[in-house]
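Appendix B, Record 12. Input sequence as logged:
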Amino acid sequence: MLLSREKTEFYLTDLETPIGKIINLTIAALVLISSGIFVAQTYNIPYNIRLELDFVDTAILVIFAVEYIIRLWSAENKLKYIFSFYAILDLMAILPFFLGAVDISFIRLLRWFRILRLIRFIDQKFLFASVSSEDSLIFVRILFTLFAIIFIYSGLIYQVEHPVNPLYTTFLDAFYFSVVTMTTVGFGDIAPISEVGRLLTVLMILTGVGLIPWQVGDLIKRLVKNVNQVETICSGCGLAFHDLDAAFCKRCGTKLRIKCGE
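Logged structural output:
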């Protein structure tokens, strides 16, 4: 029996019911598998294995394309969905498949951005069920942001440097360069020689400088704020943290069962 558009949209965004978890866990696993295929293809592997990896990657792209169409079909406001952040990430993941016949280097580079699709699940604490506090979630986001920056830029730098630079033989070489650059160690044993590669390096540094301190700042603000608060669950709205001398919930006004600070 075919699901209605409302139920389809619900299961594609729901992370609580068994069906929603299966759907979204499958999507997350396919994102990781496809990203692993990109890395494996940078190595000198047998031709038959390479063909098998290409087949698996194509199958995953077809699944992503079908998923995008279903999400678009089930969306109540289709125009709003098309220009939403997650929809743009979904489209970037399948664009190389639709334009595969066109030899455009920029289109091929987009495949490295597929890892960003995991943001949807991190925001919902889906991949990290053990994360119970907002502080821990912010820390997980910082780690994922750092990993995503290094992974994506490593792939992009490898893509543009490998044809012209003998030092970039595999993805690991580009990954090594990105790590030592982002950590400001800068050994200098590997460096891009193309203008595009150098531009990507600058963009990688600026992206890290722009995103990481901003998220670390949010974490520090919450830690400082929580020092002056105590954990007491409000029976009215569920707010967990309140001021030390609070007798009533500042969100809903419900009297706290245990007076904070006692």
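The mean pLDDT is 81.
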